[in-house]
Design brief:
Elements lengths: L3 H21 L91 E5 L15 E4 L5 E2 L4 E3 L4 E22 L2 E8 L7 E11 L4 E6 L6 E4 L7 E9 L5
Antiparallel strand pairs: 1-2, 1-10, 3-4, 4-8, 5-6, 5-7, 5-8, 5-9, 5-10
Amino acid sequence: MRGPAGFLLCLLLLVVPRCTEVAAQGDEPDPKMPCAKWMGGVPGYPGHNGLPGRDGKDGRDGLKGEKGEEGAQGPKGDAGAMGNRGVAGFPGAPGVPGMMGQKGQKGEAAFVQRSAFSVGLTEKPPAPNIPIRFTKIFYNKQGHYDTSTGKFLCNIPGTYYFAYHLTVYLSDVKVSLYKKDKAVIFTYDQFQNNNVDQASGSVLLHLSSGDEVWLQVYGNGNNNGIYADNVNDSTFMGFLLYPDSDDH
């Protein structure tokens, strides 16, 4: 072959053995050599994103952080159930001798039931076998003693104290204290001529509402020597000691 084409073919045959020898001497050809692999093809398109990898293992706990700021106070919760009664505490130490404690607050006054009378004799001598009418009033604020009948009427059930103190003059005295038409106690005093004597008696009685108590000359005979004037008195009295409780 002659001409330019033949010349190029001869030149190519001379270069190929040289390139093969150089490539056998190392894996990577020298880029400065005529047969270096620097003439690549057109760059390809980027590949698609790969799938996410699996989660790694948990790391170790880090150092404890600083204490944060206190948060705002929350709303008040519902009251809890009452707990069990606690164990009694030890007794306190005794107070200092001579030191008075503080005065407590004034309490409300309790309602007190009252019933009392104190009367004296004005008519003389009293008639026998009927209630003696003591018409001189020393005390009868509640009005429980009736001067028209000579009887005390119980308005407050409870325990009462009754007493009488009689001046004896001109004749003997025999009197009884009655409760509900029944003689309870007797008092007898024998008159001494030219002398003024005294007779007395007292008793505790339990009365129910509506019970009556009075004094009267007892028996048939001249035993009504009860006396009273400007300087001598014969008296009858009674008062409530304490009322019955609700469960009496």
